[in-house]
Design a protein that fits this description.
Number of helices: 0
Shape: globular
Structural class: mainly beta
Strand content: over 45%
Largest sheet: 7 strands, mixed
Number of strands: 11
Distance between the termini: 37 Å
Order of helices and strands: EEEEEEEEEEE
């Protein structure tokens, strides 16, 4: 399974971005998919997780109400819609896949290389 993130970039505070995570190599609906981020000088943290069917999701408190995770299994793609972005959302965002749906997708097995999101004025 290979994961490729896209959609990162620069945005002003209050703006929006949509990240995509495209899976290849195997049907992504075999896996729960999570989004993670790592800001400069900080540890990687879980942002959101979505179950294989897309019927269950969870979010970090810091993004609840602003970010929405979704998936289109016919396109083998998971999305992270990010609204009301703040400077503290600046980070490299990674998607990851694993067989178990869990809080913030702990224990993922496959990782993408990340896409940079910069929120600044």
């Amino acid at each position: 399974l290979q994961l490729v993130e896209s959609g990162g970039g620069w945005v002003q505070p209050g703006g929006s971005l949509r990240l995509s995570c495209a899976a290849s190599g195997i049907n992504s609906d075999y896996y729960a998919i999570g989004w993670f981020r790592q800001a400069p000088g900080k540890e990687r943290e879980g942002v959101s997780c979505i179950s294989r069917s897309g019927g269950s999701t969870n979010y970090a408190d810091s993004v609840k109400g602003r970010f929405t995770i979704s998936r289109n299994n016919t396109k083998n793609t998971v999305y992270l819609q990010m609204n009301s972005l703040k400077p503290e959302d600046t980070a490299v965002y990674y998607c990851a896949a694993g067989v178990v749906f869990s809080p913030l997708c702990s224990g993922m097995n496959y990782w993408g290389k990340g896409t940079l999101v910069t929120v600044s004025s």
